[in-house]
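G.,

No rush on this.
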Amino acid sequence: MLPLALFAASSVPAPAVKWILPDPPARQYWGVAGGTVFTVWPGSLYHRDRRGLGGPRGLVRVGYEEDGDVFMVNYLAVEPVVEGPRGYSELEVSQLDQVRGKRFWPVHPLLGPDVEPREPEFRPEFTRLFRHPEGHEVLEVGIGVEPFRNGARPFLVLAIDSRRPEELVVRELAASDSAHIRQCIITATMGNYIRARRLWLAGEVVESSKLYPNFSGNGFAPPTVFTRDRLLLKDGFRWVAITPDEADPAGVWPMPGGGWHYAGAPVTQYWRARDDHPEEDLLANVNGRATYWAVHVPIPGGIAFENFELIRPFHTGQEFIFGITRKTPQELGW
């Protein structure tokens, strides 16, 4: 269980949820039992991964915990837009070591966005745990992000609210020496891992095969943008979701040896963001792939959605919320 010393006040009662903190080298992630877990490279969330490789750099790994096991679901990339080119955290070569993928490193969130680059470490003391005045608990971890070629220098605070353990809150800040950020896009990059083929909007479900009926090849299908009015409005937030069209995605093995095998349950993945700033755009954007990234193996069952994101102008402290849940879209309010 979690030591109470990590809470903001020593007199608070025991946690209402069981928080998960790093315990390296065996456990290099944060989260909540029965809910969301997250980490960055070289931490891994892959089911029973004994290698600890965790996949590419420049990505936040997000999944869920169940009965002591963790299941990887998706990656989140950071893609800041300035007056010029868009940055790509997964694809840009690091200026620190000339390896592809920007360096991410966990820090205590109160250190703020001006932290200097460092080697990623997974230490419990990087966690901020506090009890909100309304009575619930919050776990926060800061994520430093290596400066981008375009001059952007974002900083993330990743948070889990004990009332909504199936969600990861992504709060965006910028360092004092950052180029002016117009948008800081957090994109879920790996919809084809679970083979997500249904996109849930307000009052309609869009199938990837219908959106891209003639697409083939090894590249990305063109991005498709949906405006604010196409997104579900619920509880003051705009929502958009993706789901697989298979009852048991874990029962499909796309490659010999287990490559690209999704080991988890069928889940709904969604983004939500506050429906404020009505004078500004709030957009959902998706693209698709017919083959798996880098290996060119056809995706069983055909094209699936790949990148999945909300886009809006950058405001310091704004939040995008990414959910992974066993609940169906109908149970969520669609």
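When you get to it, here's the other one too:
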Amino acid sequence: MHVCLDTPVGARLCTPDGQEIATPVTLRHSSADPDTVRLAFPPHVTLDGRAA
């Protein structure tokens, strides 16, 4: 049986111009892949800064 854990946390994204943007993220861990922790960002956070 695989166990999955989701934990909401806060993170700060550093932009190329030196700004820090606070955003909520979720840490995800699955016993199916025990060496991996994934960060899940909300849909409004994008790499190019434009809303999705």
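The beta strands are 4-14, 20-30, 37-40. The chain is about 0% helix and 50% strand.

Enjoy the weekend,
O.
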